[in-house]
Amino acid sequence: MTVFQGTATLLLAILILSSSQPAPAQQTLKRTYIYKRIGTLEIRADVYRKPGEAVTPAILWIHPGALIMGDRSWIESTQIERYLNAGYTLVSIDYRLAPQAKLPQIIEDLEDAYRWVRVEGPNLFRINPARVAVVGHSAGGYMALLSGFRLNPRPKAIVSFYGYGDVAGDWYSRPDAFYRRQPLVSREQAAQAVGTRVLSEDPNGTRERFYLYTRQQGLWPLEVVGLDPDKEPRAFDPFCPIRNVTRDFPPTLLLHGDSDTDVPVEQSVLMDREFRRQGVPHEFITMPGKGHLFDRNMQDPVVASAFEQVLAFLAKNLQ
Predict the structure, then answer these.
(1) Structurally, how many domains does the chain consist of?
(2) CA distance 87 to 315
């Protein structure tokens, strides 16, 4: 464990998740595929489905980690089981990680993964390419919202757990008071934590130091997008879902805890407001008193009830 144990709620929860993930149920089939190669780098996806020959709708699942850390294994096993029991095939993807990869390259991976699911999925794991939803958590929730205007054809539905629509705002581009209460990470420590290689998986669990550095210094947009929002504000237009909502946006479900210290609940409030303004079918579930990664506690009746609403939303929109 790192020196940040017990202090940064987000980082500790992620470390616990990555080290204690229980195995999927025996009736679940899991297979790992390489969906993309870039030189010697192999980018993978885990596909979970129930045994049998049934053709199912698919969920493309995108992991959290600020686009800096994490991998496809960061998915809660109870949620896998619930999705599969509801009749879905679940595809959890890796993508290149920042800062070696910048946001345009990460979006390319999302586009290629989506294309792979739709083109190869029917033969490889018997999914219906016309019935694909995108679900993501935190930075994965942001990527899910991006899919609403960056993917072609657009997904049938989007679920964003504590995601965000604005990567140029003060919450990301200015020093964060919550994270500055943690021991300050130097530039040298941050660089050492991520090394120099381009990766699509997070094997050592050290990359959170780089994330902490970006939040303490207000440098996430510069380090991850590769642009300065103060100098090039309009250059962020293609990367901010809040700036790209039209009536053609897919039906979207937002879930956010109102005590989130990592991604402000305001990010979902603003998306909800823009969806209403544009007439986009959507739902917004605010979780009173809940923080970031609230859905990791699937034993909580409130969380379990919210997840039932997720399943109901998907059922309604993946007909």
Answers:
(1) 1
(2) 9
The DSSP bridge partners found for residue 56 are 127
Asked if 237 contacts 243 with a C-beta cutoff of 8 angstroms, the reply is yes
Look at residue 117 and tell me if it is in a domain.
yes
pLDDT of residue 26: 52
Q: Quick one: DSSP state of residue 154?
A: P
Residues constituting the chain: 319
Residue 159 lies in a domain: yes
The CATH number linked to 246 is 3.40.50.1820
Cα 186 to Cα 61: distance, rounded to the nearest angstrom: 33
Q: Which residues contact 289 (CB under 8 A, 6 or more apart)?
A: 257, 258, 259
Whether 136 and 70 have beta carbons less than 8 Å apart is answered as: no
pLDDT averaged over consecutive 10-residue blocks of the chain (319 residues)? 39 44 62 97 98 96 98 96 97 98 98 98 98 98 98 98 98 98 97 95 89 98 98 98 98 98 98 98 98 96 98 96
Domain span at residue 102? 12-167+236-317
**Burial profile 101-121: b = 16 or more Cβ within 10 angstroms, e = fewer:** bbbebbbbbbebbbbbbbeeb
- What pLDDT score was predicted for residue 251? 98
| In a domain? residue 5 | no
Residue 54 pLDDT = 94
Q: Give the Å distances, CA to CA, from 260 to 10, 169, 267, 278, 293.
A: 10, 17, 11, 26, 9
Domain presence at residue 202: no
The whole-angstrom separation of Cα 233 and Cα 240 is: 11
Residues 309 and 134: their CA atoms lie apart, in Å, by: 16
According to the model, what pLDDT value does residue 17 have? 47
Measured CA to CA, the distance from residue 294 to residue 59 in angstroms comes to: 20
pLDDT value at residue 23: 43
Q: Token pair of 191, please? A: 């660089």
Residue 121, both tokens: 């999925």
Write the CA distances from 307 to 51, 233, 258, 287, integer angstroms: 24, 36, 17, 12
